[in-house]
Amino acid sequence: MSKNKKIVWGIVGVIVLVLVFFIGVAYGKSQTPASPATAYTGARTRGAGGFGGATIGQIISKDATSITVQLMTAPGGTAATSTTPVGSKIVFVDSNTKISKQVDGTLSDLAVGATVSVTGTANPDGSVTATAVQIRPAISARNTTP
Questions:
Q1: Which end of the chain is flanked by fewer CB atoms within 10 Å, N or C?
Q2: 62 and 7 co-located in one domain
Q3: How many domains does the chain have?
């Protein structure tokens, strides 16, 4: 094979690789991205993917600007009867976050051990900035119905 043919085939190869790359980029943009909440294997979340959905679990730590929620799932995978920990999520809260329980609550009502449902915006690092936190009744194996 002559030197000119090798150069032509080399250029053709580079063009094909560039085309494949840009086709892949276009395909990737056409796909719906998974939110950090649903991308986590085993995490049980509900709601819109890009908006953080609802994160349900037990508060395992708390500071002035965040709570850490232990994500839970039951063998059947339903969050309402959660009994098995499957990970955790950091949730940022501030004075604009609506805290509710049977009556409206405050940030001081977010205590370690409380079961909460969090709605908010998913952050790139997998945490959530909360727009609302609902304090839920404690979940135990005894009070679940078949």
A1: C
A2: no
A3: 2
